[in-house]
Amino acid sequence: QVQLQESGPGLVKPSDTLSLTCAVSGYSISSSNWWGWIRQPPGKGLEWIGYIYYSGSIYYNPSLKSRVTMSVDTSKNQFSLKLSSVTAVDTAVYYCARAYRSSWYFDYWGQGTLVTVSS
Amino acid sequence: EIVMTQSPATLSVSPGERATLSCRASQSVSSNLAWYQQKPGQAPRLLIYGASTRATGVPARFSGSGSGTEFTLTISSLQSEDFAVYYCQQYNNWPRTFGQGTTVEIK
């Protein structure tokens, strides 16, 4: 059973860097899948942030590309997200998810973690 | 960027009735479209991929159709657990984009 679990600070100050980790269990992150981040501002819709492959290949949403860094740690079976220079508009529930093989849709999701940007 | 437009924003349906949700893409996405269901406080759940293939464990009352720019999610007979928000997502072009969602509520 594939399980994903996000972790990281729930409160980040404006202009700081948001850092989240997604721990994957029940499945090897080194298998032929892409791994992704998606966010959802409170009461709003979903926004794709990016995908990362275990080899380090990456696709970012151009709207966030200048501020986003994704990485993968195969030894810990986890991948990470960093979003720099955050403002209140970055307040959202952040989800990590698996995209099966090169299918690009998300078949397994983490429960999500709320990150609030506030001083 | 491909804009995904879902209609209606809210659909009021009685249990046992049929629900039809629409998703329109601003340009062709072929059949590279997925549907997700999201309940309050939960992560989205994959229902349909490839425009018409049900994901593992999804009941047969959920069906998807369409290609190109016009897509439909049909719930043949609404059950109490189906009242939720539904999102479409295209994965044909970069960046990947979602629709704004359709809320299916109890009439």
Could you list the spans of chain B in which at least 5 consecutive residues all have pLDDT below 50?
none
Q: Helix coverage percent of residues of chain A?
A: under 10%
Oligomer: heterodimer
Largest sheet of chain B: 7 strands, mixed
Largest beta-sheet details of chain A: 7 strands, mixed
How much of the sequence of chain A is in beta strands? over 45%
**What is the element string of chain B, with H for helices and E for strands?**
EEEEEEEEEEE
The shape of chain B, in one word, is globular
What would you call the structural class of chain A?
mainly beta
Largest protein interface, residues of each chain: A-B, 19 and 21 residues
Secondary-structure element string of chain A = EEEEEEEEEEE
If helices are DSSP runs of H or I spanning 4 or more residues, what is the number of helices of chain A?
0
Radius of gyration of chain A: 13 Å
Radius of gyration of chain B: 13 Å
Individual helix count of chain B? 0
Kindly report the average pLDDT value of chain A.
Answer: 96
Q: Would you kindly provide a written description of the structure presented here, covering whatever features stand out?
A:
- The complex is a heterodimer of chains A (119) and B (107).
- Chain A is mostly beta strands and 119 residues long.
- Helix content of chain A is 0%, strand content 51%.
- Chain A contains no helices and 11 strands.
- Chain A has strands spanning 3-7, 11-12, 18-25, 34-40, 47-53, 58-60, 68-73, 78-83, 92-99, 106-109, 113-117.
- Chain A is globular and about 40 Å long.
- Chain A starts with a strand and ends with a strand.
- The model of chain A has no long low-confidence stretch (mean pLDDT 96).
- Chain B is mainly β and 107 residues long.
- In chain B, 0% of the residues lie in helices and 50% in strands.
- Chain B is built from no helices and 11 strands.
- In chain B, the strands form 2 sheets. In chain B, strands 2, 4, 5, 6, 9, 10 and 11 form a 7-stranded mixed sheet that branches. Chain B has a 4-stranded antiparallel sheet with strand order 1-3-8-7, with no helix packed on it.
- The N and C termini of chain B lie far apart (35 Å).
- At the A-B interface, strand 10 of A face strand 5 and strand 10 of B.
